[in-house]
Amino acid sequence: MQDSSQDIIEYLREAFFVRIPKSEQVTTSELVSLVRSIKGFFSHVSYESLKGGVKIGLVDDCTSLGDSFVHIQSYTDLLREYPVCDRDKEAVLVSDIKNSSEYFLYDCDAESVVSSAILYYEMTKENKEYICFGSKRLLLSPPPGYGSFFTRFDFKRLEELLNEYHNHNARRSTCKILERCWYDEKRFYLRAQPEEYMRDSLLQFLRNTLGKYADVTPERNTDDSHPVDLNIDYRGSNRLAIIEVKWLGDSVNDDGKSTTNYRDARANEGARQLNNYLEDTNDYNPKQEIIGVLVVFDARRKGLKSSRNPTKDDLFFYRRTNISYKVEYDKVRHDFSRPVRFYMEPKLTV
Fold it and tell me: Which residues neighbour 115 within 8 Å (Cβ) at sequence distance 6 or greater?
């Protein structure tokens, strides 16, 4: 027995914040089944990784669709059948109501597959979301602050938070933990081994901003000899982010004597390490969607050796001088995020 159109309207209003025309074509139970399939899909496949779009539909019987579909025993199977490197192709997930089974296929004629569906969900390449049934194609309008009804943007949100940390904490070293990394008030020289202050400052910020959704922990070993600086394990999903922290600049000991001078080579070393971490982590965590982020605290100053009073142009020379990476891993592999640089400004007067 079908629900009244008013029940469907109320369900969609509460669940999706949209209105649909009166219809007797879809039952509330079918809508619930569709939502479960959508949520199951996005609980294992990160929204940010989808470049080709996806259609998720309900059908009475999958046997009419042929043998090209893969029978999904659990949503974890999607990580094997639909790897990140293939997500520029459109995917189709079909739920068979009659047999209580789900089937998956990508790089196919998705439109012909869902043409026989009772109803289906569509996310386009442009990240527009629709609920479709009969001749109706209803655009979903997500709540304010959300890009999708069905999943958080875990990795995209991390990217936004790192940018926020740079602007409000790292750029002027306003964080009380981070300011301890400097040897002098003018922020010309770093203390010896300043990375612990940088890591702890970023750790505190991410715990404060992500604590509701994720567990952020320091220094996790991916193998016996290579610790990752920060590990972000998102609750309620299979998302995992690992952050490698490096710094560039000139450090001195308590007597003011030079200890370390790091430039681009140090950032390149961090990129290689993160690449290796990702290989190890993917090997031992096949059920997780993983992204790696290289974060570089950039405290480089020009002219420190040649003058006690370097010019403003020298002090800010590296503000717009990007790091040169010999291998751009973010263009080679799909789980390596674009490196993040926190330029740390000096003080001109104290």
Answer: none
pLDDT digit string, tens, across residues 271-302: 999 999 999 888 888 889 999 999 999 999 99
Entry field: residues in the chain? 350
Instruction: Tell whether 350 is covered by a domain.
Output: no
- Rounded CA-CA distance 63/98 in Å is 10
Same domain, 91 and 158: no
Residues 278 and 237 occupy one common structural domain: yes
Q: Do 341 and 168 form a contact (C-beta atoms < 8 A)? A: no
Is residue 225 domain-shared with residue 283, that is, in the same domain? yes
In this predicted structure, what is the pLDDT of residue 24?
Answer: 47
Shared domain check, 224 and 191: yes
| Cα–Cα separations (whole angstroms), residue 167 to 151, 173, 211, 296 | 27, 10, 20, 14
DSSP 126-190: T--EEEEETTEEEEP-PPTT-S-SS---HHHHHHHHHHHHIIIIITTT-STTGGGGBSSTTS-SE
